[in-house]
Amino acid sequence: MFRAALRQKKILPAYLFTGAQDLLKAEALEELRRTAGGERGTVRSFFGGESEAARKILEAKQNLSLLDPVAAIVVRQAAKLPRAEAEALAASLSSNGPPVVFWDQSLDKRQKPYAEIARAGGEVEFEAPRGEALAAWVRRESERLGHRLDPAAAGELIERVGDDLLRLRSTLERISLAVGKGAAIDEESVTEHVASSRMHAIYELQDALSAKHATKAVGLFRQLVDEGSEAPALVGALVAQIRRLLLAREAPSSASLAPLLGVAPHRVRYVVEHSRRFSAARLRRAIEDLADLDVASKTGRGDAVAALEEWLIALCAPERQPASSHVGRR
Prior knowledge:
CATH class of the largest domain: Alpha Beta
CATH topology of the largest domain: Rossmann fold
Strand order of the largest sheet: 2-3-4-1-5
Radius of gyration: 23 Å
Shape: globular
Order of helices and strands: HEHEHEHEHEHHHHHHHHHH
Helix content: 55-70%
CATH superfamily of the largest domain: P-loop containing nucleotide triphosphate hydrolases
CATH architecture of the largest domain: 3-Layer(aba) Sandwich
């Protein structure tokens, strides 16, 4: 229905993109962008939990720039949008301007704007194919990358990675690089390289955290959890990176940093530069918080995964300056 309407150039003022498959949502958003704005149209992205999200979205809807035309607006993590802000948006959804896409795994349609969008036919649910259809999707992706995939390899990949299409595609791309152009992918290749791809994701998570890229860090964290990584192991990887940043932050300039940080010499500058994004006090507090989370995860107190995700988001946020630092300023 969604794609059929786009082919007829029928675009609604707003959509609910729900379901677990972010890859399918991204593909649908790209189709909406091209239909609404052509090749020059852009997508403006917001997050439901950010400050004054509704005001910023309304300002984006009024964007009339000829140089940077807004074709669509997406509100990721829309379930975190406060009820009052969601209701403030309701009155504007039927007005002129680019369509607004509320993006999350599920949305409470008891809230007025979401209920109205659903009634208007704007709810689009994105779920993964099942069974043989999912295996067929994996084989097509492998063929797209230039590989023949053994039936047993497809089953092994799904067993290890799960049914998230974005993670399946990313893992296949990594296996493709590992086995070489045109080589067949068998069950042994999957067994060998899925484990290494998990380690690669951990390194990417550490880098995203160091760069304060919250969205990427949370995405990688969720990927690792869905692939079977346990909270204590992830805590260990995060503690190691925070300690590395703290060492780089406090080490004397004359120190030989590569062996101290446990990284290759060409990575030293990268770690030092990113360590300056954090105060030493913030890094020490982060280690203390992780120690508490580690105890909680091993004793079954609370939801360790949710707590770790909140910790990630908080650490990537800008640090508040102490009130005393403003004394004497005019």
